[in-house]
Predict the structure.
Amino acid sequence: MNKYLLVGFSLLLLSTIAEGLVCNVCRYKLGTVCFRSDEPCQASEGQYCETTEVYMGQMMLYKKNGCGKLAELCDRTEKRDSVFGINFKRSCCNTSLCNI
């Protein structure tokens, strides 16, 4: 009986490891409400789960979640629009479904 439990646990652990990093996906989120959600994505090698907060000046407009494309963009703020002061603040995490 113990052998079967050990084999079952090993298979479960192996399938979890083989699955890889899975990230929540939301294209447009206000507060805690997601308006455009997709199925979770699976990050490729070297990618992280990403949360991007979009600000106009100091006011947050919305958030979006997904699989990050470049690890170099993690934990950075990018200013894209000098007229309206639109900033994109990215944060990353590396455990499954960590980007809420």
